[in-house]
Amino acid sequence: MFTENIYKDDMPVHLLSKIMQARKMFKDKGITKSGYNHFQNFAYYELKDIIPDAIEICIELKIATLFTYENNQYKLKVYDLENREETEFCMPGKDYKNEGNINNQLQNLGKIQTYIRRYLYMQFLDITENDVVDASKPKLKHPIS
Length: 145
Prior knowledge:
5 strands
């Protein structure tokens, strides 16, 4: 969306203002992470942590979201229902092999969509998590003495 060809007059300023309001409203709710990865020992947001409050906020601000897959991109489109402005949050997609039976294929596709929806909503609402890479302690081959 933001490229060299976008002019200031073309920016969806009303919608961007509403997105910032939505981000603050979501942050102020103090949502906690209900998911927990026992293998890697960390908590994470699940869609059920995000979606119910996101819906309430969107209704209040008169914005709507639509999850799509087009042109090898997963998109969360955001629409301002009052000003007819729109923007989108994107993640690259790819074709996944159709291996195994149809049930496994559909389950895998569902997992992919669930993960991507979660990350796109996290972009939209600017939900932050601890930076696992920077927060982890490096494993040294030779301890410092």
